[in-house]
C-alpha cells in the first residue's frame, strides 16, 4: 500500500516537473522584452499594449507551482541518500519561493497590466498620478523579483542540484547544472537588491532559468521512467 502511494506521488511529481519545465521555458521566452534603459513611459507602454503580458506571467506561475510537486516527489525519492536532510531544507525554500511567486506574479503579471492600461487611457491631467502609482509598484516588483531569485531560483535549485549530483539516482550532470545556475542566481539576486536591474542581470536570469527549466523537465522525465 505504501509502495503504491509512493509510486503515485512520484508520477504526480514527474508530471509536475515536465509541466513546470515546459511552462516556465515557454513563459520566459514569451515574456515581452523591456530593458532597464527604457524610460518608465516606454516600459508601461509595452506592458499596456502587450496582448501576451498576462498569459506569459500565468504560464510562469503555473510552472512554478507545478515544480513544487516535483520538489515533493524529489525529496521522497532521495530519502535514502546521505544528503536526504538537505532535500527537506530545499523543499522548505521551494515552498516559500512559490509563495513569493504568487505575490510577484499578482503584482507584475496582473497588477502592472491594469496600472499600465490605466496610465495609457488616463486623461492628460491624471497621467502623472497614474505614472507615479505604477512606478511605485515597479519598485515593489523589483524587490520581490530579487527575493524570488535568491530563494526559489537560487537556494532551492542549488540544494537540490547538490543532492542530485551526489546521488546515483539521477544523472549527475543535471545536478551540476542546477548547482551552477542556482549559485549564479543567488549572486544575481543580491546584486539586483543593491544595484537594481540591468541588461546583464536579465540576460543571466534568462540563461540560468532556461537551464533550470530543462533540469525540471529532465528530472521529471527520469522520474517517470524509473518510478523510483
**Which overall shape is indicated by the principal axes computed on the Cα atoms?**
elongated
Estimate the mean pLDDT confidence.
87
Distance between the termini: 15 Å
Order of helices and strands: HHHHHHH
Helix content: over 70%
**Share of residues in strands:** under 5%
**Count of separate DSSP helical elements:** 7
Radius of gyration: 19 Å
Poorly predicted regions: none
Number of DSSP-assigned strands: 0
Biggest sheet record: none
Class derived from helix and strand content:
mainly alpha
The total number of structural domains is 1
Can you characterise this structure?
By secondary structure, the chain is mostly helical. It has one domain (2-226). The chain is 86% helix and 0% strand. It is built from seven helices and no strands. It has helices spanning 2-30, 40-49, 53-77, 84-121, 124-166, 172-195, 199-226. Helix 2 crosses helix 4 and helix 4 runs antiparallel to helix 5. The protein is elongated. The two termini are 15 Å apart. The model has no long low-confidence stretch (mean pLDDT 87).
Amino acid at each position: 500500500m505504501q509502495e503504491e502511494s509512493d509510486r503515485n506521488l512520484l508520477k504526480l511529481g514527474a508530471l509536475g516537473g515536465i509541466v513546470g519545465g515546459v511552462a516556465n521555458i515557454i513563459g520566459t521566452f514569451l515574456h515581452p522584452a523591456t530593458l532597464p534603459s527604457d524610460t518608465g513611459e516606454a516600459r508601461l507602454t509595452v506592458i499596456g499594449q502587450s496582448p501576451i503580458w498576462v498569459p506569459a506571467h500565468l504560464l510562469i506561475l503555473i510552472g512554478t507551482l507545478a515544480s513544487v510537486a516535483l520538489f515533493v516527489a524529489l525529496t521522497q525519492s532521495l530519502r535514502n541518500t546521505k544528503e536526504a536532510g538537505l532535500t527537506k531544507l530545499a523543499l522548505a525554500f521551494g515552498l516559500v519561493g512559490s509563495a513569493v511567486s504568487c505575490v510577484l506574479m499578482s503584482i507584475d503579471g496582473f497588477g502592472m497590466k491594469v496600472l499600465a492600461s490605466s496610465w495609457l487611457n488616463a486623461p492628460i491631467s491624471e497621467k502623472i498620478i497614474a505614472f507615479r502609482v505604477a512606478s511605485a509598484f515597479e519598485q515593489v516588483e523589483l524587490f520581490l523579483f530579487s527575493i524570488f531569485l535568491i530563494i526559489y531560483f537560487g537556494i532551492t535549485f542549488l540544494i537540490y542540484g547538490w543532492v542530485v549530483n551526489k546521488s546515483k539516482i539521477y544523472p549527475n550532470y543535471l545536478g551540476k547544472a542546477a548547482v551552477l545556475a542556482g549559485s549564479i542566481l543567488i549572486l544575481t539576486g543580491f546584486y539586483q537588491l543593491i544595484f537594481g536591474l540591468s541588461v546583464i542581470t536579465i540576460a543571466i536570469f534568462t540563461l540560468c532559468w532556461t537551464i533550470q527549466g530543462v533540469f525540471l523537465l529532465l528530472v521529471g522525465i527520469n522520474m517517470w521512467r524509473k518510478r523510483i
